[in-house]
Amino acid sequence: MDVTLPTRSKNELGTGAWGFAAWAEFFQQIGPVTPFATLGRSFFASDSLDDRFFASVGGSIELSEFVAAGFSYDWLEETSGETPDAQELVPFLVLAVSPRLSIGPYGVLGLSSGSPDDGFGVSMSFAP
How far is Cα 62 from Cα 30, in angstroms, rounded to an integer? Predict the structure, then answer.
């Protein structure tokens, strides 16, 4: 579950309202390959955004003890009726820094006009 804090005013990037998302993730490691799927819904406490469904499907493969690569196809329902649904391909790497910490670069390739054309970032995961 994610909770979005109302950290921005309506005049800035953001809605100035609370939001949260709930989802279910499904995955199964089969040797070095892990297929996965996610299905969820975001709820917004803003009059300017509609609640939306989202889904993701993809997989990863372990390339070594410390490196995995994968991709996902992500779909996000539109939130305002003014733009189409977002559809994106997301290739990624996962680098195990330690047994509890991993980091990895990822890219975004937009497949619809409701998505960015492209982008990149870095994710970090920590397991206590």
Answer: 11
- The per-residue pLDDT for range 37-84, each reduced to its tens digit, is 999 999 988 777 788 999 999 999 999 999 999 999 999 998 777 789
Q: Is 77 helix (H, G, I), strand (E, B) or coil?
A: coil
pTM of the model: 0.83
Q: Residue 47: what residue type?
A: D
Q: Which residues is 127 bridged to in the sheet?
A: none
d(CA 113, CA 115): 5
**DSSP of 57-100:** EEEEEESSSSEEEEEEEEEE--SSSSSPPEEEEEEEEEEESSSS
Length of the chain: 128
Rounded distance between C-alpha atoms, residue 49 and residue 40, angstroms: 17
CA distance 3 to 46: 14
